[in-house]
């Protein structure tokens, strides 16, 4: 394992890059450092968990294919640690790993980049996810707090509560729920949601499907019979305010 933890953390934050390919690690490190990040490198899943425990990162770039613990297990353990459950995760996946990619999203990964990828694109994705993940990043006023019955979202604090209980939402889950709450009654296609919430002009639309499913599990009384986030057949999804309990 290689780290550059001897220097002060970069103003942009710290990123843990986990990949067993030393060339990939080095290229990603150089691009992220140019963007102002402090980078920690790990070549195996166990190294990644030790590094994150020793010095929690602001974001983890995680390859799914690792020689010991696979990326899904690493993500599962990071998400299982209470103090680290909201750490953003950007997955690196190969073209043929759709099933694993969906599994990673179900575990709470916030974004993914498909190999071969542009290191510059990855750096931009990291910046986008971190910007959204940080409290107050999108300068919200108290008036921006939105409610739907017992459901309340505060974008300044990046918190969501249901019946007074705080919800454990990933960065993208929060963004998606915020978008729905601020656009009630309008049906959006998965493509439109990708563009508005993820900022992607193209991409795997199953990402939206997985995030909607996860949101339903957290805010619907009966996830299999959703009252808030409803499916509009042939179109996509619509948020129906005032129908949740």
TrEMBL record:
Residues 143-241 bind DNA. Residues 143-241 form the OmpR/PhoB-type domain. The lineage of its organism: Bacteria, Bacillati, Actinomycetota, Actinomycetes, Pseudonocardiales. Residues 14-130 form the Response regulatory domain. InterPro entries: CheY-like_superfamily, OmpR/PhoB-type_DNA-bd, Sig_transdc_resp-reg_C-effctor, Sig_transdc_resp-reg_receiver, WalR-like, WH-like_DNA-bd_sf. The modification 4-aspartylphosphate is found at residue 63. Keywords: DNA-binding, Phosphoprotein, Transcription, Transcription regulation. This is Response regulator transcription factor. It comes from Prauserella alba. Gene3D superfamilies: 3.40.50.2300, 6.10.250.690, Winged helix-like DNA-binding domain superfamily/Winged helix DNA-binding domain. It holds the Pfam family Trans_reg_C. It comes from the Bacteria.
């Amino acid at each position: 394992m290689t780290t550059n933890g001897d220097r002060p953390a970069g103003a942009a934050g710290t990123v843990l890059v986990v990949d067993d390919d030393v060339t990939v690690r080095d290229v990603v490190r150089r691009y992220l450092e140019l963007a102002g990040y402090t980078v920690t490198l790990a070549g195996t899943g166990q190294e990644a968990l030790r590094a994150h425990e020793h010095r929690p990162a602001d974001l983890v770039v995680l390859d799914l294919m690792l020689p010991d613990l696979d990326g899904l297990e690493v993500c599962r353990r990071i998400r299982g640690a209470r103090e680290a459950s909201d750490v953003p995760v950007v997955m690196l996946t190969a073209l043929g790993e759709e099933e694993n990619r969906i599994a990673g999203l179900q575990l709470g990964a916030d974004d993914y980049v498909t190999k071969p990828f542009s290191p510059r694109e990855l750096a931009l994705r990291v910046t986008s996810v971190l910007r959204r993940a940080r409290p107050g990043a999108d300068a919200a006023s108290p008036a921006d707090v939105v409610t739907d019955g017992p459901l309340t979202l505060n974008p300044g604090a990046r918190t969501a509560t249901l019946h007074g209980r705080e919800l454990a939402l990933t960065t993208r889950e929060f963004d998606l729920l915020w978008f729905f709450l601020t656009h009630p009654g309008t049906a959006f296609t998965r493509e439109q949601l990708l563009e508005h919430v993820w900022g992607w002009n193209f991409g795997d639309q199953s990402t939206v499907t997985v995030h909607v499913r996860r949101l339903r599990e957290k805010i619907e009384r009966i996830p299999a019979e959703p009252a808030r986030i409803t499916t509009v057949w042939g179109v996509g999804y619509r948020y129906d305010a005032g129908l949740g309990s």
